[in-house]
Amino acid sequence: MGIYMSENQLKVENIRGFESLWSMNKPIVIPDFQRAYAWTEKNLMKLIEDFRSFSQNRQKHDLADVYFMGAILLFDNGETFEVIDGQQRLTTLVILNYVLNKDNFPEKCKFSFTSPISIELINKAKIFFANEINESEKNILRELLTKLEFTVTVTENQDDAFIFFDTQNSRGVKLKATELLKAHHLREINGISGQNEAAKRWESLELLRMNYGTEAQSNSELKVIDQLFDHYLYHSRVWVGKVGKRVEFLDDFIEYEQRDALMQEFGSKTIKCPDNSVRLYPHGSNQHVHSIEIDMRAQNGQGEYLPEYRYRAFKHTPLSIPFSLRQPVDKGMGYFLFVEKYAQLLQYLTNVSDNYLKEFDAFNSAIMFHPHNSKYARRFYMLCILSYFDKFGENGLIKFALYLEFLIGAVRLENDRLAKNSLTNVYLRDADVNLLDMIFNAYTPEQLFEWMMPLIKKQSIKYQNKGKGVQKSYLDNMRRYYGKGDNDDASSKLTWLNEKVKSL
Q: pTM to 2 decimals?
């Protein structure tokens, strides 16, 4: 059955059987801009259990002879069909078919994977199916592959393909806001070469991991890209001024509200930039340059045109691009460069190897990144650190970290339990001046420190000796960092702070 919609050149067809899917007139490929293969053992087990249940119920109750596998969206580029939606299911089925029929690999399947994440999970999927499926079950599953039915939509318009991608719900792993934003901004880039370049940059960001000093072993799977959006980028931009009756965290929202909030901030609110350029805005490190030129004339030696970025007086590194956290974000390549800078910066600040930041790293390991510290304290701390570094770089960073920790520690000692809103209520919602605004509005580190000192003096009365639990653990770590003994009075911390600052 085929349905044709002439206005958008869409073809929708129901295809029965796994082999029939690969009998189309062109090879099926996974474009470079797609996300990595993401199915884990949990997803694989759910698929196998569904197949088993279907087979058992069909035989027992004489049910319909069709297992519906959902929608597949393909873009016809003239030479191949690019999988826009459905690649997770199709890849999994190809792996399953390979395990069941090693001599029967679909000829039109031209899937290629370079991502280490994809390669690792694909190998794990092969092993899982080989171990999970016994010989007596193989014939049942081989027959079931012939019962699979797909609704395949083919479009010859790439914009239509991306629109469908934004709205389709895939079986198994649901698309996150970051994945939807990736697709949203890829379609804003003119040309396949530019899209592939952006996709490769994004893929490299997917490999970045947070490293919280002594906590690294228990948090080795903290993906920088997810943490960046969930705890830092969004909050740095929306927590401006008096933020209402309460500070809203993304993880306070239900799932669809989280996605909507991120899609609005980094999707609909982004700006279309004319020509092949990315606008820059007034910034401490940007005194001369007003835009980044994207030259699509540069060739890579294979006849393919790739974007080349040129901006005067700056090195060609993501950290050197003079973006600012609260600036308007351009659509397309501007978005990818913006995210790349702050993903690299977040990893840099949590994986310090620069000798210049040795004291900063030692301080973080001793107090802020210590395993006993609250995750809410660490998130608030890193949000402010990221904002400070964005404005002033390494200049005065350790001094700011010491001042900031003093403020965080005061709230730590005031509360037996540090709740999610404990710090944000004090320093954002109820503060005379929002601390983030204070950072972004200061012209120099010295001006910021001058603004912070009255608040530090006010909070110094909170410092007292606490005899138990997390508060005692915090005081013990703090005393050790400042070179004090167990019996030294915590009420003297302001004096210790001033002495430490003078010694830097």
A: 0.70
